[in-house]
Amino acid sequence: MFKILIAEDDRELRMLFQRVLTQNGYAVRGVENGEEALAALELDYVDLIISDIMMPVMDGYALVRSLREANYQIPVLMITAKDAFEDMQLGFLSGSDDYMVKPVNVNEMVLRVGALLRRAQMITDRRQVIGNTELLADSLTVLSMNGAQVLPQKEFLLLYKMTSSPGRIFTRQQIMDDIWGYDADTDTHTVDVHIARLRERFKDNADFQIVTIRGVGYKVVRR
Length: 223
Hints:
Distance between the termini: 32 Å
Radius of gyration: 19 Å
Number of strands: 12
Largest sheet: 5 strands, parallel
Order of helices and strands: EHEHEHEHEHEEEEHEHHEE
Helix content: 40-55%
Shape: elongated
Number of helices: 8
């Protein structure tokens, strides 16, 4: 079960986030500011942090900077009442991974949390094997009986995602959210183009093939 830490000084909002995320299968803990969040991290592992920006003692910007300076790579979703571009830019520059503006749509928040956790898991695992084919995330390389291929980043991440769950169908939108990001300024046709390139690259691979599920998306199946 993924563990989520919420840093939010508004008690009602914090309790709402906790309730919604718990209902969606996450283990959730809440704190009131950045300083308490850092203290909580010393006691337990956390998979993701949801942090308000304007908090007493230590605000969200300072919290994220402290995490990155200490080499914590935990994904951080920032939530704030500020919607100016400069505030969003400062949030990302401090090291946050995503950004939402209050009032928060909790259903959208759950979607963003899921996408951030999936991307983080893909990066953490670093290596994947299907049959005699090995995918090495650090070098974006696919090793098989046909030799080694270094792929463009998006192609590699797309193949890595699908080979992580052979037989599972991924919709085009799921792929867009996880690989290109929830706010990507592109359409799902991009996925089709990348799938076509991967099929051509691995048409002779003896371990897997990419199958189209008409009107839905794609899946990888073992040969």
